[in-house]
Every structure is written in C-alpha cells, then in structure tokens.
Amino acid sequence: MERKTRVRFAPSPTGPLHMGGVRTALYNYLFAKQRGGDFIIRIEDTDSQRFVPGAEKYIIEALNWCGIVPDEGVDASGNVVETASERHPHAPYRQSQRKPIYRQYAEQLVENGYAYYAFDTAEELNAKRAEMEAQGQTFIYGQTTRMGLRNSLSMPEAEWKELLETRNDWTVRFKMPENRVVEMEDLIRGHVEVNTSTLDDKVLWKRADELPTYHLANIVDDHLMEITEVIRGEEWLPSLPLHYLLYEAFGWTETQPRFAHLSLLLKPDGKGKLSKRDGDRLGFPVFPLQWVNSEGEVSRGYREDGYFPEAFVNLLAMLGWNPGNDQELFTLEELVEIFSLERVVKSGARFNADKAKWFNKEYLRKKSVAELTDLYIPVLESKGITGISREYVEKVVSLIQERATFVADFWDIASYLFVAPTTFVEKDAAKFWKEENYTLALQAADFILAFEGEFTKENLEGPLEEYIRSNEWPMGKVMNCLRLALVGASSGLGIADIVTLIGKEEFARRIEYIKATLC
Ligand code: GLU
Questions:
Q1: E-assigned strand segments in 456-508
Q2: Which residue of 54, 247, 269, 468 lies most exposed, with the fewest beta carbons within 10 A?
Q3: CATH code assigned to 420-518
C-alpha cells in the first residue's frame, strides 16, 4: 500500500539555524506539500552538552517567518507539542521528552546480537588511544579493537552482568559487522556503497544520562513517526551505512525511509562551506533572524537586514535546485507545484550575496505601494519624521520603489522629500553652482513659483522644460542647480517630481536657503 508522505526536519537546538538548515527545512516542506503529505518538526535535543537556551525558539520562529509551517510537532502558538492528540499523534516531538522510549530499543539490539554493553571509562579509552597513537595507529572502538576492551563481548558473562547492575556509566554500542558492503540508495546521489571495515562501533545509548545518542534516537523516531523520506544535509551521509544497518537490525527495512542528502552551501568563491565568518567578512547574513549569543555578540539576520521572507525563501530554493528553465522568481505555492528532488544538484551551491539582494529588489518591485508604506512609516518615525500624511508617503514610495533594494533604502534615496538639505555636496556645488548657471536656475525657479496651473508633475514638467529650452539655456546645468537646491546634491529625482511633492512654499524656502548659503 502506498504510504502517506511524511517527512521531518529534525534540528538540534545547538545555536541559531544556519541558512543551509532553513533550506533543508524548505525542501522537506516542498516535498511534503507537493504530495499532500505531512511535514513534521522534531527537536533532537539529546546532547545536553551542546544545548543552547533559546535555540529551539529561534528555529521555530525562523521557520515561521519563512512560512514553513509544520503539520505536526509545533502547535498554533509556536510551541513544540508535548502531548499526543489527534493532530499530533506522535507527541512528544522533543527527544528529551521521549527519553523512556529508547532504552528498550537499545536492549532489543543487545538481545539480538546487534549491540553490546561497554564498560570502558573515559580514562581507559584515552589510555588506549594514546597507546595506539604512540605506535602510529589511530584508535577506533570497533571490529579490530573491541575484543581487547571492556565489554560484554570480551568479558565473561558473570563479570559484565555484575557491572551492568553496579555501575551507572556503561553504554550500548552497535556491533558493526565485519567486512560487509552496505549498499544504499540516495535520491540525489544514486547508488552508494560502503565497506563496514572502516566503520566504528558507535555508542547508541548511555546509562549515565539514560539518553540515546543521535543515531539511535533518529532511527527509532523516524520509524515510530512513520517517516517516508529523510531529506537532510550531506554531513549525515557518512552515518547512512549505520542507519541502514540499524533498520536491518530492528527488522524495519520494509518501512525504512528513502534518503536524500543535500549538498552544502558554499562560500562565494566556492571554496568550502559557507560560514558565519564569511558573512561577517563580506557583509551578508548567514542566519534567517538576528541572533544574540550568551556573550551578547550579535549575528545579523536576513529579517533584520530588511529581506522579505518571500525573497529569502526564493533565493534559498534556488541554491541547489533549478526548475530546468530560466525562471528565477517563484512564490512558495509555485515552488510546491514544481519542486523536485531530481532537480537538486549533487555539487555544492555557491552563495552569491549580490544575487541575494537582486531577489529582494525584485520582490520589493512587486509589492504594493500600500504595503511598502506600512513598512516605511516606522522607518520615518525612527528618523523623527511624524505628522506627514499617509498619502504623501505613498506618493514618495511610488516614485522611488523601482530604485530600492530594501525599504531602508527609501530614506537614503529620498530623505530630502521629508527634510530640507542643510549642506550641499561640495563636489557637485563646485561643478554646477557657478554664476553663469545659477542666475539662469534662479530665473527658472521664478518661473516655477509663478506657475499658475494646478501644481502637478504632468502640468509642470513640460512647460518648465519648454521655458528652459526656448531660452536656449543649458538644460542639464540649470536642472542640476535646481537639484542642488532641493536635494543638496546633483543627483536625485526629476525636478518636477520633487517640486510638486514638497509644494511651492517649501520650494521657495529651499531656493532662499541655497541663495543665502552659496551665492
Ligand atoms: N539532528 C540532526 C541535525 O541537527 C538531524 C539529522 C537528520 O535529519 O537526520 O542535523
């Protein structure tokens, strides 16, 4: 029987979610939604040493911001679900709360000969490691060393059974079979084979904290949660043989999920994994949201840098996947329609910060003036600009929308539509504010002030240009003098646009000011 598609994103709350992690979540989400399946979030927090407070909340908030909303694992208020219900039948979804589940599975493996108890202390293992390294060998706990170590395979039964009762620091280790070729299928990479002779006996469960390690918890939960496909980062590919063997050892191969390992996001130069340091060095975020660590160190986030979530999702989708044609802009809904793992590339995807900005610019162009105005008003308020009509801000936004990449750019592009310039760019003034130009510009200003028609760009622009042209004045120089008065620089919007926005009175004030300052 065809099983319902169920995939999961299984982050460990060890810090802020890297954008590569968001991409993994996104591909899982797209895969599930396309098939009418379920997208589940499971928090893998069994490694208490790497636990970072706030990381879980951050991860969920980041996914939420992107519109990657889970069907199971997180409730409507954004909390990881702790109690099973009809909608969340597999709760709890936090592995630390599933603690009692795992021990029986570890013991089942021991009983069936797939795992064993190990009693070596950290000191004993360190001594063994040092001894082997002194002989130029590397130590792994596995097929060649296990019989010389302290475990239920090497020790007499009575002895290890006593230790099992009396000590509370033993572990369960997987007994890696010798010299077996594990044959695996990856939905992106195809057929993969690994010989077990190089693999160690991984710890699966620890008596000390009664917790499973990642490998055991991951396999048990994927099985219990009826996961059909595991889509995750390629750093987990080396663990795949162990995971295959665990499914086999449990007798779960019939329902074993299919696997897809996603390649890394690479630095802009293509050399190595994209890291936070690259972001700091080259000036772009690698995290979806801003993150402040326990030392108060701030890492920038796409959200705080002014990216739209739709743009962020779109740019992530294109990092490692393509639709097979030139189209680059896709909404989340469109991605659900056309995404396919077959079109995910095997090689790493190089991050390009300019391209990331390009996506945002494209989304900003598509936004409605009303929405952008909503976003811009708080920016204006933060600059101390209040009491301006919404209609005025909308006009400004519609004039500069095409020129901006981020909403924050609006201010840099046209702050002069809200505050008069008090200084003039020296180089521009030196170039244009010369007597032979400004005497003409001041006459053009008088023409504008005397203009009697309705004061709109359409009414003013033609007659103003006609006036300058009929006098045979140099158009560019005259306009640039006027722009200097209105903007404080020789670049900016068209004169008629500025004048009709700020109005006649303000125009007159700015002309008086430049006269008093520069003439
Ligand atoms: N907890 C693992 C991680 O943080 C999940 C790996 C997996 O998806 O199997 O990457």
A1: none
A2: 269
A3: 1.10.10.350
Could you tell me which residues come within 8 angstroms of residue 513 by beta carbon, excluding any fewer than 6 positions away?
420, 422, 485
Mean pLDDT, rounded, of the chain: 97
Closest residue to atom 3 of ligand 1, CA basis: 11
- Please name the residue whose Cα sits nearest to atom 5 of ligand 1: 10
Written as six digits, the tokens of 423 are: 């200084």
- Measured CA to CA, the distance from residue 317 to residue 333 in angstroms comes to 12
Torsion of CA 341, 342, 345, 351, to 10 degrees: -40
Match 């490691």 to its residue by tokens. Answer: 129
> pLDDT (tens digit, 9 = 90+) per residue, 232-273?
999 999 999 999 999 999 999 999 999 999 999 999 999 999
Intervals of CATH 1.10.8.70 along the chain: 367-412
CA of 11 to the centre of ligand 1 (A): 5
Instruction: Ligand 1 pocket test: pick from 14, 26, 29, 44 the residue with the most ligand atoms within 8 Å of its Cβ.
Output: 44
216 C-alpha to ligand 1 centroid (Å): 12
Q: Which atom of ligand 1 is nearest to the CA of 8?
A: 8
pLDDT at 519: 87
**Bridge partner list, 184:** 192
For the domain covering 367-412, report its CATH number.
Answer: 1.10.8.70
CA of 442 to the centre of ligand 1 (A): 69
Residue type, 312: F
Counting atoms of ligand 1 from 1, which one is nearest the CA of 9?
A: 8
Which tokens belong to 209?
């904290």
Structure confidence at residue 213 as a pLDDT band (50, 70, 90): very high
Whether pTM exceeds 0.85: yes
Q: The CATH number of 97-262 is which of 3.40.50.150, 3.90.800.10, 3.40.190.10, 3.40.50.300?
A: 3.90.800.10
Question: What distance in angstroms lies between residue 14's CA and the mean position of ligand 1's atoms?
Answer: 11
Please give the pLDDT value at position 2: 84
User: Which positions are annotated as active-site residues?
Assistant: 276
**Which atom of ligand 1 is least distant from the CA of 214?**
1
Closest CA to 249 of 55, 108, 364: 108
- For the CA of 12, the closest atom of ligand 1 is 4
pLDDT at 397 over 90: yes
Which residue's C-alpha comes closest to atom 10 of ligand 1? 11
> pLDDT tens, 445-458?
999 999 998 989 99
- DSSP tag of 5: P
Look up residue 160 and give its two tokens: 């290890």
Does 299 have pLDDT greater than 80?
Answer: yes
* Residue 309 CA to ligand 1 centre (angstroms): 24
One-letter amino acid for residue 381 of the chain: E
CA pair distance 73, 125, nearest whole angstrom: 39
Residues having CB closer than 6 A to ligand 1 are 10-12, 44, 218, 230, 232, 236
Q: Where along the chain do the CATH 1.10.10.350 domains lie?
A: 420-518
Residues of the chain with CATH 3.90.800.10: 97-262
